Each structure stands twice: as C-alpha cells, then as structure tokens.
User: Fold this.
Amino acid sequence: MNFSVTDNDFFKETSLLSKEEKKGTVIHKSPSNIALIKYWGKHGVQLPNNPSLSFTLTNAFTETKLHYQTKAENESKSEISLEFWFENKKNEKFEQKIHKFLESLLPTQPFLGFVHLKIYSQNSFPHSAGIASSASSMATLALCLCDLEKQLLNTLENKEEFYQKASYLARLGSGSAARSVYSNIPITTWGQTNAIENTSDLYASPYSLPIHDIFQNYQDTILIVSAEEKSVSSRAGHALMETNPFAQTRYELAHSNLQKLITALEKGDTKTFIEVVENEAFVLHALMMCSSPPFILMETGTLTIIKKIQKFRKDNNIPICFTLDAGANVHVLYPNKYKNECLDFIERKLKPFCFEGKYLKDQLPVNSNQ
Ligand code: 2P0
Assistant:
C-alpha cells in the first residue's frame, strides 16, 4: 500500500467467510503513548486537524484477550454479540461503550456480526492514577479485531497492511489510539504532513526519519498530580477547538513545531527539542484556558513541578523537560544517560507534589521491528 490509501481499502466483504464453525482466541498488548506534538481539534470521522507525533511507552500498557465463536445459522448476523470483562470483572459501562463502537463498524466490517465475542482487558497501570487508557485500550482492541478478521477471512497477511488497518480502526475508537498500535516503535506519527513521507490522516505510522542516539531509550517519569477524572472529556475538548479564536494559528504552529522537532530528533539537539515539547504542552493548556467555556486542566502542583523542572535544568545543565496531557499530571522527559540524577531529583524535589507521592517510571522501547 502507499499513501493513496483510502477508507475503501479498509472495508471487507464477508463473502470470504467459510460456512464451517470457527472459534479461537487472539491476544494483544498495546502501549500507552504521550504526544509531543499534540492532536487537539478534529473534523469528519475522527480526522485530525494537524499532524501529531508521540513517544511510545513501555511499562504502561493494556492487554486484551478476545475469544470468538461463529454464530449458528439461525442467529442474526446484523447484530453485535459481546460480553466484556475489565480486570477480571464484568464491566457494563465499558461493555456498552465497546458494543457501540463495534456497532459503528458493522457496515464496513460486517464479519463482526457473524461471531459471538468475549473480550477480557486489563491495564498494567492503576486506574486511579488519572492516566488516560483510551489510547492503549482502543489500540489493543483494534489489533484483536484485525487478528479476528485475519483468522475468519484469511486477509491482512501483509504486516504493514495489518498494522495500518489496526491503526485505522483504533483511530475510529479514539484518535490518540491510532498511535498506540506499534509496541516496539519508539516514535509514531499520525496525520498528513509533507515533512514525512507516506503519512496519512487515516492511520498512524512508525516514525521513518533519523533519530539521534541521545533519544534512544528516552525516559518518561509520569508524576501523578491528580488521580481524579478529567473535568472535560477529550471529545468535548476537541469540540471546543471549533470555536477557539486561535485554532488556525494553532494548526499552523503544530506544523512548524513538527518541522523543528524532526530536525532536533535527527541532530540530537535537546535545546530545540525542549523548546518545542514544552511549547506544545503550554499551547494545549492555553487553548483550553481561552476556549468558551474555559477550562483549567493544571493543578497548583502542576505549575510548581514545572517551575522546579525548569530550575533544575538551568542549575545543572541537564536536558530534562516536561510535557502534559489534557490533565494535571506531568510527564518528565530526559535522556537515559541522566537517569540517576533525574530520578534522584524527582524523588527528593517533585515527589512531595505528587498525589500520595505517586509516580510511574516509564521509557521508550528499544527500537526493533514490529
Ligand atoms: C494527543 N490528546 O495528541 C492529545 C493531546 C490529549 C492531549 O488525543 O476524541 O482521547 O478519542 O479522538 O485521543 C486525547 O484525546 O480523543 C488526545 P478522541 P483522544 O494525545
């Protein structure tokens, strides 16, 4: 496939489905990701208004097991049949959400109506940590659905095609999930940009440009400032961009920040890396503050931590920086070679501002083929 891939490439006929009864289990694991160039604002069916780029995490992931059995001849093939367990308990709320998602896929993925599905999912990170799990959970579900299609219809044999489709389906579940289907790829991009070949708004791809050694095994320590649910859902957050007076400027800035980041990643230029990454975090939060209605997603502790990181960087000449998701928690980013100094700083100076002293140590995966 090339970059002229369209929605039609992801639609599948059920005529390939054999009549014999089939059952089986597929299992997948997907990492969480943290965007450096943020996706904030969308149009159409989950299409991003600007390209985004993210670091893949290693320790924060979702694991999903999908058990399937083909329906009997007299059972309806136009309905989804699903039971859903989260962390070993039947979860009605998640079941309804996934049911609705699968229903929305039925017109283009009709084979989903031909099976009874039992899905078991669990996260590696605590759910009371205010860490978004939609990216890793939708990505792992999408990978399972692609494996299901492969087993039922003998399609998606080609690896690249398999992952593109998984990313495409994950995107329909949650935008940032498109970037979470590639477990062992440290950097992922989603959204069409002339700066990177073969990029698409329909699915994310492994970052294909040179990465300097300083970014190998880059560290991300996630400081839990608030474990509460977000005050505004990401769906509502994205919608606020439609009336935000700075929206157009933001989309242009995302493109120029991406270009700067690409060069910094290649050259190992941590100074520019830090400028871009912190700017993207501040801009995301500034956009929410000047939306109508406005939202403040940072807490007092968030600001205190940010100031301490910036001071530590200046005083010690260590290229440590932060980024934020659409919430109060802080991702502290630093090169692997400064791990000891940075972890010591976090433990002594930042931990007191974390909710119950909680933080999670994470890092980029070591690059390997998918
Ligand atoms: C991102 N975020 O690029 C941005 C930055 C949060 C801050 O994408 O509505 O859950 O499901 O497409 O992906 C969070 O929004 O939104 C998000 P939907 P999603 O990671």
Observations:
- DSSP finds eight helices and 13 strands in the chain.
- Helices lie at 92-105, 134-153, 159-173, 234-240, 247-267, 270-289, 300-316, 339-350.
